[in-house]
Amino acid sequence: MKKILVTGATGFIGRHCLPLLLNKGYEVYAVTSRGPIGGFPDIHWQHCDLLDPGNVSALLEKVKPTHLLHFAWFTAPGEYWTSLENLRWVQSSLVLLSSFVKLGGHRVVMAGTCAEYDWQYGYCSENVTPIKPSTFYGICKHSFHMMAEAFSKQTDVSLVWGRLFYLYGPWEHPERLVPSVIRSLLRGEPARCSEGNQIRDFLYVQDAAHAFITLLEKEITGAVNVASGVPVSLRDIISKIGEKLDGKHLIRLGEKSASANEPPLVVADVRLLKNQLGWSPKFDLDEGLNQTIHWWQKHLSGKE
Question: Could you give the CA distance from residue 223 to residue 110 in angstroms, rounded to a whole number?
Answer without folding.
Answer: 10
